[in-house]
Design goal:
Elements (H helix, E strand, L loop, with lengths): L15 E9 L2 E9 L10 E3 L10 E13 L7 E8 L6 E8 L5 E11 L4 E9 L6 E11 L2
Antiparallel strand pairs: 1-2, 3-8, 4-7, 4-9, 5-6, 5-8
Length: 148
């Protein structure tokens, strides 16, 4: 999620929320994503495998071939991150879980990868974090498979 248009400051001045339920002081009860003030986008490691693209390409799925995470502050606590998938209409499934510390970033290149179907959601998220306000960067690489 990202901001398309802004005012004279050139960035979003306040937080923008994506969610559902009752809204109090501009914040929904159930929060799914947020664009924090001055950021311009969500900064989330998420993706959904498409069925078709705007150029007419049809997909039959994808394969996650790498995932990575690092913490940005010196800390003695371990941050636990998880690579998760959710097939359409089902619950989240943890595919990989790993502890990450400042001295040891995670960078797993998968020989065989994780196959996922169309409409599958993919995310990397923090499961536990032993230190407050720790900057964490994470993501994944995947290959989309096209229908021939």
């Amino acid at each position: 999620m990202y901001v398309l248009t802004v005012g004279t400051g050139g960035v979003n001045a306040g937080n923008i929320w994506c969610g559902s339920g009752a809204v109090g002081a501009g914040v929904p009860a159930n929060k799914y994503a947020a664009i924090l003030a001055l950021r311009g986008q969500t900064l989330m490691a998420t993706y959904t495998i498409p069925v078709a693209s705007s150029s007419g390409q049809n997909y039959i799925g994808g394969q996650i071939v790498r995932w990575y995470a690092t913490v940005g502050a010196v800390q003695s606590a371990i941050t636990t991150v998880a690579l998760e998938t959710r097939e359409f209409g089902l619950s989240w499934r943890t595919r990989r879980i790993h502890g990450v510390s400042e001295g040891g970033p995670l960078d797993e290149h998968m020989t065989f990868g994780i196959n996922v179907g169309t409409k599958t959601d993919i995310r990397v998220r923090v499961v536990t974090n032993g230190a407050n306000n720790t900057a964490i960067a994470a993501g994944f690489d995947l290959k989309l498979r096209q229908k021939v």
